[in-house]
Specification:
The chain is an alpha/beta fold. The protein has 7 helices and 6 strands; from the N terminus they run H-E-H-E-E-H-E-H-E-H-H-E-H. It is globular. It starts with 6 loop residues before the first helix and ends with a helix.
Length: 194
């Protein structure tokens, strides 16, 4: 016997099914702490500031999104990257730095590294950091600030992305040289609007 179903109940049923948020049974989310620059001791903050200045100074022109990756044991800068402002929009400073590290150091132990970046990693970059198992991320300007300046940003901050990866247990430090990078981003964005 065929069941007769009107178009209206079918439409409303479909809308209800599509609007229901489905969470996979294996998904878990946890809260990831972010340490601010103000919470650090003088020596630790100065060390992070030294590397952040290197990220700011990465050559290349274009947007001021720069990154350096540092070996925690030796203190050596392993590689750097800068957003070249090209048509390929995945070339963010962090992505370029990680690609360079993989190319230059194929046997690299990623678990010994810290990534410094002038802007808080977007969800794409933070996901790549997580997949590479880089245990520490230090950033200057927040996604919220970049959005307030007028830059297009995906509204997921680093703790949210990291918290969605139950296998990742990294440390996030925010606001290192933030006043300096906030100004760089504001000036760069204003120059584009002229």
């Amino acid at each position: 016997m065929a069941m007769k179903c009107g178009r209206r109940p079918l439409l409303f049923g479909t809308i209800a099914a599509l609007s229901t948020r489905v969470t996979p049974a294996s998904a878990s989310s946890r809260e990831v702490a972010v340490k601010s620059a103000e919470a650090l001791g003088d020596e630790e903050r100065q060390r992070h500031e030294r590397y952040m200045q290197m990220a700011i100074d990465v050559p290349g022109g274009g947007p001021p999104f720069g990154a350096v990756i540092v070996d925690n044991d030796s203190g050596n800068v392993m590689c750097h990257g800068r957003n070249p402002g090209s048509r390929n929009r995945i070339y963010h400073g962090e992505m370029v730095a990680m690609i360079n590290c993989g190319d230059e150091h194929p046997q690299l132990d990623w678990s010994r590294l810290t990534l410094y970046t002038t802007g808080e990693p977007c969800p794409m970059c933070m996901s790549a950091i997580i997949w590479n198992r880089i245990p520490k991320v230090v950033y200057a300007t927040s996604i919220r600030k970049l959005t307030n300046i007028g830059l297009n940003q995906i509204g997921l901050d680093t703790p949210t992305v990291a918290g969605a990866a139950p296998f990742y247990s990294g440390e996030i430090i925010s606001g290192i040289l933030q006043n300096k990078t906030d100004k760089l981003f504001e000036e760069w964005w204003a120059s584009r609007r002229r």
